[in-house]
Amino acid sequence: MGKSILIVDDEKNIRRTVRMVLEGEGYAVEEASSGEEALARLPDISPDVVLLDVQLPGISGHDVLESLRRGCAQDAEGTGRPPGQPEPVAIMISGHGTLADAVRATKAGAYDFLEKPLDRERLLLTLRNALERRAMAREVAGLRALAEGRFEMVGQSPAMTALYAQIAKVAPTRTRVLITGESGTGKELIARAIHRESPLRDRPFIKVNCAAIPPELIESELFGHERGAFTGAAARKRGLFELADGGTIFLDEIGDMSLSAQAKVLRVLESGELSRVGSESSLKVDVRVLAATNRDLQAAVASGQFREDLFFRLAVVPLRAPALRERATDIPLLCQAFAAQIARDNGLHDKRFLPEALDVLAAYAWPGNVRELRNVVERLVILCEGSIGAGDLPEEIVAEVARRSRPLRPMADLQLPPEAANLSLRELRDLVERQVVRAKLDENDWNISRTAQVLGLERTNLHKKMRALGIARDDRRDS
Ligand SMILES: Nc1ncnc2c1ncn2[C@@H]1O[C@H](COP(=O)(O)OP(=O)(O)OP(=O)(O)O)[C@@H](O)[C@H]1O
Ligand SMILES: [Mg+2]
Predict the structure, then answer these.
(1) How far is Cα 106 from Cα 127, in angstroms, rounded to an integer?
(2) What is the pLDDT of residue 308?
């Protein structure tokens, strides 16, 4: 279907001419003879471009333009317009074109301005450009939504709520933040969130993976080099600190940086100045520095692997990314968020996690944290048909959770009475054994074989033990 154009003009002749020209070019054309009519019909037509006469009988073209933009902005947040669907592009038309009108209209967000009498070629060219711009706007909106989804932090646990509050406090400042936490806990996401919520959000965010750059190259990567500074330096190159000027530099895996590079970074932090490799003069840069590490930097300082002065300059505010097992209540939310994202990326239907599966996932210890969880979810979304149940989960996770939860239940029920303090060791042992055996019997529905197996006893020995401890079938709790 052709792109749809709405022409708003009170002159019938103009509408007819425009319709003829545009339909001849394959566009779908709608007409409105007043601003009121245009606004009323806009939601139904949702045109790509609106050609808008400035002088209309009722409300003016300028007013229509304004409510067009306002209305669309509201719509984008509500449900009217799908995300990523930009507002129509407005092109103003005037019979008595004055520069003032043109300036006012473009300031108010019109794409361009055409004068009557309309010139066919100019009309078509302007229209093509406007459509191209709209396609680009759509692409940008889509990419932004995608990128923001990628770097969105998920979680509502107390640990995450506290973290969000800390991010909100440091983001508006220029304070240096050192982000610590186990591998896969989202340290990079935190750095991006701080930048995104800072006044520098429209300036560059440059991430440097200090562990990935060979020690002999890190200086030239960070600070740049002059032509001929060393073999292979064929041209002058700007360093990452220079590229980040005015914005944020994120020194990731800072704990892996060599001592000599640490000294150079320290100089930039202290003086705001750097020199390209092979250059005599120094440059001023204005960069906010965020750093992250999964190492224990204080221990590295103690062992001489990390400069103490650099540590204190980086860790003005330390932020700790909580391990996933410290916020297990977020696991269902993370599973659903990742599943939706992965399904969308791969053109698959969204998958639902059954509560039984979420229970197991929430009980697992996640040594690889959120990254490990994301990988497991990706595997499940790709491989499973329909909803994801406990039986679909990776065997090692199910086994690990079973192993950890088995001894816990009866132990949690263990209760020593106050007089236990005065019992002999033997009496104490009987007391505990009685509770453990009873708990295991209850757990296994008083099935003797199964209980014996769980306790690591022969059936006959369990019977003997029960008699010795005075446990009889009649003791069954639930009967
Ligand atoms: N709170 C969160 N919400 C959503 N996704 C998260 C969250 N935390 C981490 N992730 C995801 O987990 C993965 C690992 O996150 P990230 O790279 O930020 O971890 P890291 O702490 O920098 O790990 P490493 O120390 O290994 O570099 C990424 O895919 C990231 O999007
Ligand atoms: Mg990282």
Answers:
(1) 15
(2) 97
pLDDT in tens, 56-104: 888 988 889 888 877 643 433 333 333 345 678 999 988 765 667 777 8
Instruction: Say yes or no: CB of residue 313 within 6 Å of ligand 1.
Output: no
Give 243 Cα–ligand 2 centroid separation in angstroms: 21
CATH code 3.40.50.2300 for 4-146: yes
CA–CA distance, 242 with 230 (Å, rounded to integer)? 20
**pLDDT for position 146:** 64
| pLDDT for residue 99 | 64
Which class does domain 159-320 fall in? alpha beta
- Phi-psi region for residue 187, left (φ > 0), alpha (ψ -120 to 50) or beta? alpha
The answer to whether the CB of 320 is under 6 A from ligand 1 is no
- Residue having the nearest C-alpha atom to atom 24 of ligand 1: 183
Helix, strand, coil percentages, rounded to 5, for the chain: 55, 15, 35
pTM of the predicted model over 0.85: no
Domain ranges of the chain: 4-146, 159-320, 324-405, 414-475
Q: Which tokens belong to 478?
A: 């639930």
Residues in the chain with pLDDT < 70?
1, 71-86, 96-99, 142, 144-150, 406-414, 475-479
Same CATH fold assignment for domains 159-320 and 414-475 = no
Cα 201 to averaged position of ligand 1 atoms, centre (Å): 20
The H or E element that residue 424 is part of is none
Q: Spelled out in words, what is the top-level CATH class assigned to the domain 324-405?
A: mainly alpha
CATH architecture assignment, domain 414-475: Orthogonal Bundle (1.10)
Rounded to the nearest 5°, which phi and psi values hold at 465? -60, -45
What is the per-residue pLDDT for 73? 39
